[in-house]
Amino acid sequence: MSRADLPEVIVIGAGGVGVIAALSLSLAGESRVSLVVRSDYEQVREHGYEINSCDYGQLRNWRPHRFFKGVEEASESGKFFEYVVVTTKNIPDGPEGSTVPDVIRPIVESNRRLCPERQTNILLIQNGIDIEKDIYAKFDCANEKIVVLSGTQLIGSTKIGKGVIRQIGQDHILVGPFDVQNKAAVDAAQKFIDLYRCEDRNLVLFDDKVRYTRWRKLIYNSVISTTTALVGMDVSRCLKFGVAGMGTEEEIFKPGMREIFAIAASEGIELDEECISFFCDISRKQEYKPSMCIDCENGQLMELEVLLGNPLKIARENGVETPVLSLLYNMLYMVQNKLKEQKGYIKFELDDE
Amino acid sequence: MSRADLPEVIVIGAGGVGVIAALSLSLAGESRVSLVVRSDYEQVREHGYEINSCDYGQLRNWRPHRFFKGVEEASESGKFFEYVVVTTKNIPDGPEGSTVPDVIRPIVESNRRLCPERQTNILLIQNGIDIEKDIYAKFDCANEKIVVLSGTQLIGSTKIGKGVIRQIGQDHILVGPFDVQNKAAVDAAQKFIDLYRCEDRNLVLFDDKVRYTRWRKLIYNSVISTTTALVGMDVSRCLKFGVAGMGTEEEIFKPGMREIFAIAASEGIELDEECISFFCDISRKQEYKPSMCIDCENGQLMELEVLLGNPLKIARENGVETPVLSLLYNMLYMVQNKLKEQKGYIKFELDDE
């Protein structure tokens, strides 16, 4: 295949996950990679990225094939993007125009104008459950030939400065169709894996049970990430600073995790009991702050709905009791509104007498 | 009675409550009032207090009869203090030497040296339940002629600057014996009321059901104060910012309050159902932050044990279920330890592999 014939991939979201995804795709050499960069645009257009990666080594002035300042610019590029890889935070309750469907719409529409007969594959490398539903609701996927794929990253990659990325855990990603019955989605996921794989350097696997994978990751994110955000400290402090050195684990983490197990079970997904101690232990010995905690500390909105709101909707529909998760949600919902007020997205007014 | 014969009262803790207590006692004119001032000592010894009080008007350069820099200085004054009024925060898990028994000990001991046959009355104007137990445990009250009294303040008084006090709610205090069977305590409470009452200006009532009064106040403090501390915002925002504008009230405040009702009931105290809506409404229309919230924001230790830890001990002893309060406690316990680490009272170390 000549270079001009390589499929075009656009990565939206230039944080730790997005930049490493763009890098992997570029190094694999099977696609042309565009990266949408917002806040660091001037910096990286001028100097590229500085990347310190356990998989890909030390890179300076690294650039994907193209940078775009925003999705509108990308949609005017005349390119058909076969894969739209979304690595932004997923905050459906964010400010107007910031939801995933809003963000991808210009590209979906320009793709359609350019080649109405070709399929557009949306790959959501994001946490949470039911995140595909918002795409299904806002686009006529069957008629518009849109396929939605799940990406679950198990990567320790962080943007530590303007245009500077540090990746400390192997680039390990599971890619699969949200709807395993959808042959086009299965094929698209498999093709993406071929575009992404860099022999011996990253680990890219086909995910034939996306929902299970997402529930499994929620064992950590719905319970531990949320707790750290609420109390404002890293996981190891949460554990050590609990009542009698064990209250956090025994009274919050484990009961909260069991609620996730029960919700998943209510839709027929059985999680492995061993996950409980695995996830309790995974960051016990590091001063690790999950991104929800960091977002909250930095005054940024949290991924509260996809990590906790959506699981609780399912729990309510299926009659599952969730005392720990509900209380966490009620508390963090207040905090999310405080962050929204600080950002100027909402206004607080006292009720009149 | 000549002035020299007036009983000596010492107020320990020169915050909003302590200074107004010292002022009321002084104005009533039936006692000689000493005030222990720590942080503002130089300021108030030089300039006295500036007080803006809804009961007592505008005062400048106001001084009680005596200032002391600490309890040790007071204990060396040669005075027998008939009443030791404690208005400090009650933080039994604070740094060494900071508990109420530690703080009052020098005065109790100097009293005993001066007049072993006279009774020392300890009046705790502090929130929480079972706060007297710590005094009973650390002193041989019967032999040392120590009586412990309860003071419950319903006052809106705050120290708003060095030596500056603003009081916006009427000075309304309930004083009574923790042990209503103890005749000496009943008499001491009644005598204190006479020392404190300023006709038409304050409201001082005998409290013949101290435990009820304290449980009633905990309906607010165990639930609303704790929640505001955890999420870091005033009560009206907590209410408005809840899920669907009512999650805070319906899912946290009311269920938490019902747990306090159940714990109180388990020791035979029946709280009035109407308190629930009363306390939910009391600060709905003000941007009011309870002191626990302010302490947490200011990096000060919270009165967590007396407001929440002690009620939960009783719940456990009596087999009362407390899902909401326990989770609040587990969360705030972590936060309290974070504050202790910040203050340098404890050290955090990662476990070795």
Automatic annotation (TrEMBL), chains A, B:
Which residues are listed as membrane-spanning?
Answer: 6-28
Q: Which InterPro entries match?
A: 6-PGluconate_DH-like_C_sf, 6PGD_dom2, KPA_reductase, KPR-Related, KPR_N, NAD(P)-bd_dom_sf
Q: Where is the Ketopantoate reductase N-terminal domain?
A: 9-179
Q: Which UniProt keywords apply?
A: Membrane, Transmembrane, Transmembrane helix
Q: Which domain of life is it from?
A: Eukaryota
- State the GO CC annotations: cytoplasm
Entry keyword annotation includes Transmembrane helix: yes
Concerning Pfam families, the annotation shows:
ApbA, ApbA_C
| Domain Ketopantoate reductase C-terminal: from-to ranges | 210-334
Does the entry feature the keyword Nucleotidyltransferase, yes or no? no
User: What name goes with this protein?
Assistant: 2-dehydropantoate 2-reductase
Organism of this sequence: Torulaspora globosa
| Species lineage | Eukaryota, Fungi, Dikarya, Ascomycota, Saccharomycotina
